[in-house]
C-alpha cells in the first residue's frame, strides 16, 4: 500500500524475543534494484561503525548469482569493550521478476566450512541469516526489505555494558535505519531535487564519514594504525595513547618519507568512558553543543590551532576547497544523514593578548553532531569536532575529538520494541523532547547511559610527556563538568536511582532498613543511625555518607540493596544492582578468602576489614579507608543477608 511521495519513508520492526539482536525494515525508494543493491552491499559507505569490509574471494553460480567470502570489522563504541569482527558468506542473485536478493550469514565450522582464525583485539561476532530483498515497482523505483540479525557476544563485555550489545533498538538505529538513510540521500541527489540546505550533499557526506571514522579510530586505538599506550600505573581512569606514524589515519599523502616522524610531530589521544545516570544522550549532547564555552579551555583550543598551522598537516598539494573556489562552508548544513548536522563553529575567545588575538583570527572547528534532532530515536548521540583553518580542503587531514553517549536501558528497548516504528514520525519515541520518556504504564523510564570522551592533539618531538599530562588533566576536568551537568539536567522529584516509585513506599525496604540497623546494634553495640524512628530510618540509611550495601549470604552472593553512596561507589542503579555479585567487587586477595570471611561473619556476627581496593561495576578501582561487615537477621532471628559499610571511599 505504499505510494511514492515525501512521506513514504517506510517502517522498521524490532525483535525482542530472538537469539541475539534483530531488526527489519521495509521502504519504497526511487532507485532501480541494481543501484540499491550496489549501495547496500557497500557497507563502509553508510555504516559508520564499519572499519573495513574485505572481499577475499568470489565466484559465480550456475544461475548467474555470485557468492563472496567477506571479512568485516566493526568499531567498538566505547573504550570499555573490544571491537567486533565477522567472517561471512554473501550470496547475490536476480529473480525472474527482476527482484534482487542479497543473503549473508556467518561462516562457521559447524556448517562444514573452515574455522576462521581469530584476530587480536577483536571479538568474533555472529551474523545470522540477514540481507536484502529489492523488488522493482511499476513505473520505477524499488521496494526494499532489510533484515539484520546479529549475535554481538555480550558475555565478553562488563555486565553494565551488556544492554548495549543486547539492544535491538540500538541495532536498528545504527545499522538498519542508516542503510535506508543512505539510499534516500543518494536517490535524492540523483533525482536533482532542490532541497533547502542540500547543496554539496555528497561532499558533506564524505566529510561526515571521515569525522566519524577518525573519531572511532581514536576511541579504539588499534595497534595496526600505529597507536601505542603510554606508560601508566594501571589505576588511571584516563588513558593516553600516542601515534608517531599516523599515515593510515591521515591519508595516503603522508608516506613514510614525508610522514610525521621525519618532521618531529606526533598525535596524542586522551580518552575515558563513564557511566551516567538519569540523563538522555540527546539532552546531554545538545547541552554540550550549545554550551561549549562552559567546558572548553580556550588555551587548549588555541594550542590545537597553533600546532595545526606549524605541523606538516597543511599540504601544499591539497586540492581546491570542496565547496568551490573562493568559498567556505556556511555555518551549518542540516540533515546530512537525516538527524545529523555538519557545521563550522567560529571560536570566540575574549581577553587575549595581541599575539594570541592574531593566532586566533581564523580558529574554527568543523563539527558533526547527530542524535539530537526532533526525529532522533534517542538511544545514541554524538558530538565530534576538529580544528581547521580557512584554507581547509577536502583532502586535509582531520583530528576529531568529542563525545559519544549511548543509552544502556533495557527498559527503553522493551518500550520501543513493543511498537511499530515509523521513520516519518520520528520513531514515535520523542526522547529528543524530554530527558525521560513515559512508558506504557505511565512511569518514567530510568535512564542509564555510557559516555565516551576522546581528545586528540598534535605534539612536537620532545613534548610528548608534557602534552600527555595536559591532555589527561583536560579530560579529567571535562568529565567533572559533565558529572555536574548530569546532576543539573536530571528531572526533579525522587532520586534518579529510585525511578518513579520511592523506596519509602515499599514494605520490604522498610523492613530491611530496620533489620540492618537492629543487627548492627546487636553485633557491634553501637547505633548505626542517630535520632531515627522506624519510618525515618530508611531515609537516613539511604542518605548515609558511607557506602552501605547488602548481599545474599548463600553460595551466589549477589547484591540486593545499596544506599545512594553505595550505588555511586558501584557505579550502578537499584535496577541493575542484582546483576552484580560480591566476588565482582572484591580485590583478588579478598576474593580468594571470601569463603572464610563469610563463615566468620556468620559465626561471629561481624568482621572488620582493613583498608584496601575494590572494583566498581565499570571496572574502576575504588579505595576505602576501612570497612566492616555484619550479619543481618530478620524478625525470626534467621540470617537474611550480609551488610557491608565502606568508609571514606574514593575512586583510585
TrEMBL record:
PANTHER family: HOMEOBOX-LEUCINE ZIPPER PROTEIN ATHB-14 (PTHR45950:SF7). It comes from Larix kaempferi. InterPro entries: HD-Zip_III, MEKHLA, START-like_dom_sf, START_lipid-bd_dom. GO terms for molecular function: DNA binding; DNA-binding transcription factor activity; lipid binding. PROSITE patterns: START. SUPFAM superfamilies: Bet v1-like. It comes from the Eukaryota. Residues 43-168 form the START domain. This is Class III HD-Zip protein. Keywords: DNA-binding, Homeobox, Nucleus, Transcription, Transcription regulation.
